């Protein structure tokens, strides 16, 4: 009889772990993983409206300068995306639990085959260091948090 209870408790415990790790997570901030309809947005215009944080950390300030120099030409001012050019990084698709910080380095270093959006493949970013990418990620993450993306 004691084995029965041990198996029952163990099964409930393991089931709880499975549910915790594999259950769908709710979206936050009104964003979804589905790319927005951009048909009414002019070519090159921002795809999302970005709320700016009141202030940026020192790393995010450095990251903003890196982003403006190396990333904004495609991903737009404040990572809002540019219709017909590149997606917004202020979108749940790029939240930390879906695209971790390392994913940004890999994308910058190797480029990315299009898989979430229909903008075409992203080429590697020439002449950007790992440190610069990590500073740009600090900036992106602070923008994401200010916009309810966690």
In short:
With 150 residues, the chain is mainly α. It has helices at 2-22, 58-70, 72-75, 101-110, 130-146.
Q: Which CATH architecture of the domain at 58-146 is right? A: Orthogonal Bundle
Number of helices: 5
The poorly predicted ranges are: 23-31
Q: Which structural category fits the helices and strands?
A: mainly alpha
CATH T-level topology of the domain at 58-146:
Cytochrome Bc1 Complex, Chain D, domain 2
> Main beta sheet: strand number and arrangement?
none
What would you give as the CATH superfamily of the domain at 58-146? Cytochrome c-like domain
Shape: elongated
Roughly how many Å is the radius of gyration? 19 Å
Distance between the termini: 46 Å
Mean pLDDT: 87
Number of strands: 0
Give the SSE map.
Elements: H1 2-22, H2 58-70, H3 72-75, H4 101-110, H5 130-146
Helix pairs in contact: 2-5, 4-5
Description:
The chain has helices at 2-22, 58-70, 72-75, 101-110, 130-146. The protein is mainly alpha-helical. It has five helices and no strands. It has a domain at 58-146: Orthogonal Bundle (Cytochrome Bc1 Complex, Chain D, domain 2), CATH 1.10.760.10.
Keywords:
150 residues, mainly alpha, Cytochrome Bc1 Complex, Chain D, domain 2, 5 helices, 43% helix
